[in-house]
Amino acid sequence: MEKILEIKNLAVSFKTFFGEVEAVRNISFDVGKKETVAVVGESGCGKSVTANSVMQLLPMPPAFFKTGEIIFKGEDLLKKSENEMQKIRGNHIGMIFQDPMTSLNPTMKVGSQIVEGLVKHQKVSREEAKKKAIEMLKLVSVPQPEKRIDQYPHEFSGGMRQRVMIALAMISNPDLLIADEPTTALDVTVQAQILDLMKELQDKLDMSIILITHDLGVVADMSDRVVVMYAGQIVEQGLTEEIFDNTSHPYTKKLLASVPRLDMKRDETLVSIEGTPPDLYIPPKGCAFYDRCDFAMKVCKDNMPEFTHHSQTHASRCWLSHPMAKGVKGSEK
Amino acid sequence: MQEPLISVKNLKKYFEVGKGAMLKAVDGISFDIYPGETFGLVGESGCGKSTAGRTIIRLYDPTDGEVIFNGKNIFALSRHDMAEVRRNFQMIFQDPYASLNPRMTVLDIVAEPLDIHKICKNSKERKERVIELLQLVGLNDEHAMRFPHEFSGGQRQRIGIARALALNPKFIVCDEPISALDVSIQAQVVNLLKDLQSKLGLTYMFIAHDLSMVRYISDRVGVMYLGHMMELGESEKLYDDPLHPYTKALLSAIPIPEPEVQRSKKRIVLEGDVPSPINPKDGCRFVDRCAYAIDRCRVETPEFIEHKPGHYAACHRIGEI
């Protein structure tokens, strides 16, 4: 498959008063054309930092790139100047944020916000841009777009605002859409509408999607491949079916088991992951999940596991899947 | 039949929103909550589930209706009598960051209900009780002198739970207690709530929009839409065999974390948004988004009746659809 985005060995840190926080620690993954890749993990695992690195929306300082490349259509985005990046953000990569309430400008009419980008990046006249904005709102199923375009964000409901956000992100037919928790702030019924809309637009416009979420139900619905992050690292990645049916990493297993299922008996206990993720001021030398893992072994404490490949597409970072650990069940620490 | 612990009758809570307009947040809901059970309340944002929870323990003064607790209507109680009764009611809030005073130590936060109701004779007894409570929720005595900012979200929620337990309440309203937490931490808190329930014989009202979690934790579940109760029943029955078209749509929208199931399942997509609760029209509240709506639904508000034992719903067309 043709690759549209390749992240290679990316490491991002933040300089703080107390020292350096290693938010993203050497991650690599790619996104193919028309593919949807889900990045899942808990808060603080680095998934949003990854997304914002691609867009280069991180405040620098305190953030800085330690190593890595982000290759988008053959070019390294980390080597681009701010001017060049603006062109890429305006034309080639769109982004949807979690909270449609705070990511739209409350003092600007919705129409002007959509038109703004068009006029700047596509060199079209205001009238033309407005026509296109109306078309776009129609495409994302905002009723009465001619009227709505002159309204302010507060006159829209949460779901409608998220539609406007999508319209904004999609107006320039981007090749890649980064959706950072696009439905977390929405109700399930509205979430279903928005996810359907994203799938429909993806088909129509041939774009790739990076979907950042912690909702495994949304992942099951949307993604072709899944990247599981923990404490700034990728711990497992693979095709969606591989992740759900052949789960390999203990963290992914626990994550899947900690969500209640609709067919679950009520007297079953929910699996909980005791403890909290490690502090990334001083990231652990070995496996980051060591403290919370039921299968941790001596080797896990001080030695960082490498990726073991289970298939061409499926890999996980755990000593248990190392070829030398065959038959080892993993023991108490 | 067991006596209900709390009996809610025709509860209404309206808010005036200027120019004579009324926001009917809760508009005539009735149900019973039995001792020792968990009653789940679900619905989309703005459906009135939080207002219902708060009105039931009289944090809001109701517009109309009764809540019977121990044979008395608590809305009719004087301020003094209410203070007595209030010991039995507690609340756990959604946001563990906003619901703890950042300038108080955990000791003082957890002891605040004890102070207000003058339970402890001296500071030694007070501290002992607080430590006992902290241990009950999985924290320990060394946490007592710290401040809220030193804790993670899950730990803060535990502090909130310890505070809610301080007066040995009978009934706790949990208003979205886990929505602000990560998936892995959610399970910790839910398991803790279940443990405490069996240890202390608590009764919960569990308000949430995470439908799978509500099914898991609740014995019975009520579904609200725009201030009305649409359906109520035992949780497994309600989820397996929903009667109301709204419940059906709501349940079908839950994304299931299994790719094959999720991708092959049929989703009932609701068009549009939840209408405004300001001066709502007569008739069924769901009528504009319902695929089965007939003329009668627009004129006549459907009654909330028992269709199967213990399974209530408000819809004219049950049995036909």
State the total count of DSSP E strands of chain A: 12
Q: If helices are DSSP runs of H or I spanning 4 or more residues, what is the number of helices of chain B?
A: 11
Task: Give the CATH H-level superfamily of the largest domain in chain A.
Answer: P-loop containing nucleotide triphosphate hydrolases
Mean pLDDT of chain B: 89
Unreliably modeled segments of chain B: none
Shape assignment of chain A: globular
Task: Reconstruct the topology from this structure.
The complex is a heterodimer of chains A (333) and B (321).
Chain A: E1 3-16, E2 19-32, E3 36-40, H1 47-55, E4 63-72, E5 75-76, H2 82-91, E6 93-96, H3 100-103, H4 110-122, H5 126-139, H6 145-148, H7 158-170, E7 176-180, H8 188-205, E8 208-213, H9 216-222, E9 225-230, E10 233-239, H10 240-245, H11 250-257, H12 298-302, E11 307-309, E12 315-317
Parallel strand pairs in A: 3-8, 3-9, 6-7, 7-8
Antiparallel strand pairs in A: 1-2, 1-4, 4-5, 9-10, 10-12, 11-12
Chain B: E1 6-16, E2 22-33, E3 38-42, H1 49-56, E4 64-69, E5 72-73, H2 79-86, E6 89-92, H3 106-116, H4 123-136, H5 153-165, E7 171-175, H6 183-200, E8 203-207, H7 211-217, E9 220-225, E10 228-234, H8 235-240, H9 245-252, H10 259-264, H11 295-299, E11 305-308, E12 311-313
Parallel strand pairs in B: 3-8, 3-9, 6-7, 7-8
Antiparallel strand pairs in B: 1-2, 1-4, 4-5, 9-10, 10-12, 11-12
Tell me what the structure shows.
Chain A is of the alpha/beta class. Chain A is built from twelve helices and twelve strands. In chain A, helix 7 packs parallel to helix 8. The longest helix of chain A is centred in the middle third of the chain and has 18 residues. The model of chain A has no long low-confidence stretch (mean pLDDT 86). Chain B is an alpha/beta fold and 321 residues long. Chain B has eleven helices and twelve strands. In chain B, helix 3 runs parallel beside helix 5, helix 4 packs across helix 5 and helix 5 packs parallel to helix 6. The longest helix of chain B is centred in the middle third of the chain and has 18 residues. The radius of gyration of chain B is 21 Å and the shape is globular. The chains are: A alpha/beta (333), B alpha/beta (321). Chains A and B meet through helix 7, helix 8, helix 9, helix 10 and helix 11 of A and helix 6, helix 7, helix 8, helix 9 and helix 10 of B.
